[in-house]
Write a structure and sequence with these properties.
The chain is an all-alpha fold. Helix content is 66%, strand content 0%.
């Protein structure tokens, strides 16, 4: 009769949450919560950009020859609508809605593209928004805490 061997460090059982098997990347899990808040902030900033563009055409730099040149009022409406929808999706992520992650990735991608085209008007603000959007996309794509998604 052989004696049972002592458990090795690799064979000890750990809770699933501690091992990361079911919770996904722990950085991404916390990042998803942060991404929800950033979506709210990004949406509010979009609303502010939109209202400023709609209210007056002089608030942003004049762009003479640019491929994606729209009237500043048109850009204002684009940012306002995207901002309102981003606030809604950010709230959905914070509430844990299953639809919000996929919709968030799609809408933040559109927001990133819109801000890339917005670069000549407000370069620093657009670059900051693009950086926020890249983090949000990363956090929403890497979180695997919900196996249904």
């Amino acid at each position: 009769m052989s004696q049972p061997s002592a458990p090795t460090p690799d064979s000890t059982s750990r809770p699933a949450a501690a091992s990361g098997a079911d919770s996904g990347n722990p950085w991404a899990g916390g990042g998803t919560l942060f991404a929800g808040f950033l979506l709210l902030v990004d949406g509010v900033l979009g609303v502010i950009k939109g209202v400023a563009g709609i209210a007056t055409n002089d608030v942003y730099a004049a762009v003479n020859d640019y491929v994606f040149k729209f009237n500043v009022t048109t850009w204002g409406w684009i940012h306002l609508i995207l901002g309102v929808v981003l606030i809604f999706v950010g709230w959905g992520i914070l509430k844990g809605a299953t639809w919000a992650r996929a919709v968030g990735i799609a809408l933040v991608s559109l927001n990133l593209i819109a801000n890339f085209m917005w670069l000549p008007y407000t370069p620093i603000w657009a670059i900051v928004t693009i950086a926020i959007d890249v983090f949000i996309i990363w956090a929403l794509c890497t979180d695997r805490s919900d196996p249904a998604v």
